[in-house]
TrEMBL record:
Entry-linked InterPro entries: EF-hand-dom_pair (IPR011992), EF_Hand_1_Ca_BS (IPR018247)
Keywords per UniProt: Signal
Record-given protein name: EF-hand domain-containing protein
Signal peptide: 1-21
Organism: Hyphomonas chukchiensis
Gene3D superfamilies: EF-hand
Length: 103
């Protein structure tokens, strides 16, 4: 009986994780050269390659993600953009750095 309860608990946790897995973009999918930054070319290539956006749409999205307008998107910028999109921009929200440190 204990084994079954443990299995059911694990299954429930995995289901919850899987249901939220697509909510935060995987930074490594965009950062092809693994330099810790997403260039416009990397972002546009990923978005057009997966047919999620046209080239012009991808460029417009990248511009909105590039909060400091340095022509690259850091993991922190990507996370903050996702937070803003979700309406989670208050001081209690966790940063990408905090999230990575806790894993």
């Amino acid at each position: 009986m204990v084994r079954r309860a443990n299995f059911l608990m694990a299954a429930a946790m995995m289901t919850a994780l899987i249901s939220h897995a697509d909510q935060l973009p995987d930074f490594s999918l965009f950062d092809v050269d693994d330099d810790g930054l997403i260039s416009e070319d990397e972002y546009v290539s990923q978005q057009t390659g997966t047919r999620k956006a046209s080239e012009s749409e991808a460029i417009a999205k990248f511009t909105r993600l590039d909060l400091d307008q340095n022509h690259t998107v850091s993991e922190e910028e990507l996370y903050r953009a996702v937070q803003a999109w979700r309406g989670e921009t208050d001081e209690t929200s966790v940063s990408a750095t905090d999230l990575a440190a806790s894993q």
